Amino acid sequence: VNTSGKPDISREKSASLYEKAKSYFPGGVNSPVRAFKSVYGTPLFIEKGDGSHLWDADGNEFIDFCCSWGPLILGHNNARIKDKVIETIQHGMSFGAPTALENELAELILKNNKFIEKIRFVSSGTEAVMSAIRLARGVTKRDKVLKFEGCYHGHSDSLLVKAGSGLVTFGETSSAGIPKAFAEETIVVSLNDREALKTAFEEFKDQIAAVIIEPVPANNGLLLQEKEYLQFLRDICTQNGTLLIFDEVISGFRLGFEGAAGYYQIKPDIITYGKIIGGGLPVGAYGASAEIMDHISPVGSVYQAGTLSGNPVAMAAGIAQLSELLRMGFYRDLNNKTEEFVESIRRFAAARSYKFKVFSIGSIFWFAFTDKAAVRTAEEIDPASMEKFKKMHRELLNRGIYLGPSGYEVGFISAAHNKIDLEKAKRAIFESLDLVFK
Ligand code: PLP
């Protein structure tokens, strides 16, 4: 029941499109979280986006803090990206042969990122991570991979694995359709637990090919890690001949041009990218030292390929977007703007003693219904607190604010969010919090 005094937004057209979609796609969607299962109502079908704003099929207008789940660091429909894509598309869509645009995007990245020497473009974050894992296994000639509870790395078989019971466990599959034997090659431990990691390395001595982490875990809340812990990971991997993979599909080009590696000044062995790198088109990538990357086919023995890898139109979008990020002061302005925004929400909630925190880094933020000063592990999130998020999400939609439809998801601020947007969003957030806690 809506008790907010604001009528729910109209969803007639979205609801009718959703009915049709359900007959075409499982659950009516092409990616599960879009189904709005964790919040009220049916999914909104989006018609257009411009700058920081979104419009749905019913003509409702929103300030968007989902930003396509991260890629749109310049906002929707950025003129420079659009122009570059249109210019490129005049010459064809795909050739399955090398183009100068691939060189151009690679050069832009490698010249401005001291953590990798060579890169390979793929078409999604999942593909980037899957390939990075294969590369690590090929280089080390070991099979096991260690991941952390609360980190998401896409939907490849080895990584759809969650912790079993016990300190160091073989994973249990978190999806049907994954052979048990695959999950047995994946070890899962809690974040921020040094002992568990030491135990894993003792128990599986000389067997762990890679430790993979989101250095800024942002798929299960925002579980910010301390630099010392990430450095500990670096050291224990080096000591054990294990490769450290930073999955920077979210943090890459978001925290700064050099992502989390640059932010923490820690050099992983392999880095994966996605989202921002493609300017809104499907691009992923993985990079490492030339020595490691030369294990990949056709020079090396680790096979990886893609019909649409390095697609010229997608490369063009990436070039246009990343060029903007290299402008002086880009990240300083974006991060300051975010800090001001989240700080005023924190002050509001603190003044009213609401059990509510905003965790943030760079231009990523997470609304957490908790009184903990820090949340570093998945286990510290109370699932019951998601009921509050659900209410807040509805109140925000009714006030023209669009967040990802789950309380475990983070929000993003783009360069297109201006003062007016952020003031309006703050007012809506304050009103919504008052209703949630009334
Ligand atoms: N790795 C991380 C850290 C992600 O956040 C995601 C997606 O959200 C992926 C990998 C998978 O990327 P994609 O959805 O492009 O396959």
TrEMBL record:
Q: Can you list the GO cellular component terms from the UniProt entry?
A: cytoplasm
One example of the protein's molecular function in GO is:
transaminase activity
The entry sums up its family as follows:
Belongs to the class-III pyridoxal-phosphate-dependent aminotransferase family. HemL subfamily.
Keyword presence, Chaperone: no
Return the protein name: Glutamate-1-semialdehyde 2,1-aminomutase
> Is NAD set as a keyword in this record?
no
Q: Which SUPFAM superfamilies match?
A: PLP-dependent transferases
Q: What class of enzyme is it?
A: isomerase
* UniProt main location, coarse: cytoplasm
Question: What EC numbers are recorded for this enzyme?
Answer: 5.4.3.8
Checking Pfam families in the record gives: Aminotran_3
Q: Which UniProt keywords apply?
A: Cytoplasm, Isomerase, Porphyrin biosynthesis, Pyridoxal phosphate
Positions modified as N6-(pyridoxal phosphate)lysine?
Answer: 275
- Assembly, per entry: Homodimer.
Write out the annotated subcellular location.
Cytoplasm
Which biological pathway? Porphyrin-containing compound metabolism; protoporphyrin-IX biosynthesis; 5-aminolevulinate from L-glutamyl-tRNA(Glu): step 2/2
The GO annotation for biological process reads:
protoporphyrinogen IX biosynthetic process
PANTHER family in alphabetical order: GLUTAMATE-1-SEMIALDEHYDE 2,1-AMINOMUTASE, GLUTAMATE-1-SEMIALDEHYDE 2,1-AMINOMUTASE 1, CHLOROPLASTIC-RELATED
Q: Which intervals of the chain form a coiled coil?
A: none
Q: What is the lineage of its organism?
A: Bacteria, Pseudomonadati, Bacteroidota, Sphingobacteriia, Sphingobacteriales
Q: Determine the domain of life of the protein's source.
A: Bacteria
